[in-house]
Structures are given as structure tokens and as C-alpha cells.
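Session log. Operator J.P. requested a structure for one protein chain; no other inputs attached. Running the standard single-chain path with C-alpha cell output.
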Amino acid sequence: MKRTIATAALALGLVTVAATAQDMMRDVDLSSPDMVSAEMTRGQVEAALVAASIAAPADFTGKRLSGLDLSGLNLSGAIFRAARLNKTRLAGARLDRAILDQAWLLDADLTGASLKGATLFASQMARARLDGADLSGARVAADLTGASLVGASIAGANLGADMRNQSMGLMRAVLKSANLDRLNARGADLSRVNLEFASLKGADLTGASLKSAQLGGANLTGVTVIDADFDGADLVSVKLVAPIGLSQAKNFDKARNRDRLIQE
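Structure written below.
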């Protein structure tokens, strides 16, 4: 009973903090046992997966799983709502359709992981490693500041702002200072996403929506922008060198601060 109350209180607290500019780390002690320890072993996680079914997926809501090595596990459809997975190893894991809303994944290793169709709403993923990960079709409104998604895929994924929940603030993906080199973002919704100072060298933005996206200081060297929509995007100090298909981009003339582009 105490555990249930504590979990509910945590979830309520996270929602409350999410309502204030998507900053869940305010007043949180990231060095506390609650944020750096694990209450389960890998073996116990595996046992929960074996006991799960499609009708009753493995549920790790509010669990402390930080620092565990869960690499290679099939966690598809599992529920990690408000779970703590800081510095957890999930390299090569399958998290397709997993629910990671309000989860903590600071410095987590998801290299080569599959998160197709997963939901990451109000999740904290600063400095997470997702190189080569597949987030195609996922719903991502997470803070990925300083994260690495080199060679990853967000094809068809929705990272854009949720304009229906303004009471919670502007919930959208934050990829500030992230490494997105060679990212596959074909058809992705990046509207109003914060991409300030991100590196998108060689990224494929074919058909992506960049409406009102914040791109200030980003490096778009060699980026493919065929049919990408720049309506209202902020291009201040953006490095746009040797772009592919710029003449075929949509609404580039409606982007803001085009006169402050850096073109070599």
C-alpha cells in the first residue's frame, strides 16, 4: 500500500513539474538513492517479462532500475511510466511500443535499441546514447539535451509540440546540443522542436516538418531537405553548407532569420 501511494505521489509530482516548462529536474536530487539505485536485478526483470502477456504486459511503473544492465532484452510493450533508468544499459534492447512516459533515462545507453512505436512523453533523456537506435513511428516529447543519435532513425516519428495540452506547457522534443549526424528523419514531425546548436551533418530530413522549429546555431552541413517544410523555422546562425534539395524544400522563404544563415 505504501509503495502504491509513493508511486502515485511520484507520478503526480512528475506531471506537476512537467506543467512548468517541461523541467522535471527542478528541485530533484539526482544523486539520491532514488535516482541512482536499483530495486530489482536483471534476473528479476527477466522473470517479470516471462510472466507477462499481451493482455498483461510487464509493468515497471515507478521502479528504480538505474545502473542495471538490461542490454539485449526484449522489453517490447513493457510499461516504464515514471521509472528511473538513469545510466541503465539498454544497448540492443527491444522496446517497441514500450511506454516510457515521464521516465528518467539520464545518461542511459540505448545504442542500437529498437523503440519503434514507443511513447516517451515528458521523459528525461539528457545525454542518453541512442546511436543507431530505431525510433521510427515513436511519439517523443522528451528532453534529449546533449543526447547522441548518430545514425539513428526517427522516420515517421512525432517529436512535435502537443498543442492540445497547453495546460502542461509546450510539450515537445528538446534536442538542444544533440549529435544528430546522419539521422534518418524522413517524414518526421519536428514542428516547434528545439534543435538549437544540434549537429545534423548528413541528416536526411526528406518530407519532415520543421514548422516553427528552433534551429539557432545548428549545423546542417550536407543535410537533405527535399520536401522539408521550413514554415516559421528560426534559422539564426544556422550553418547551411552544401544542402541537398534546398530548391525543393517547402516554405523556405517563410523561415525566420534567413538573412542570418551561415552559408559557405
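Operator note: Confidence is low (pLDDT under 50) at residues 1-22.
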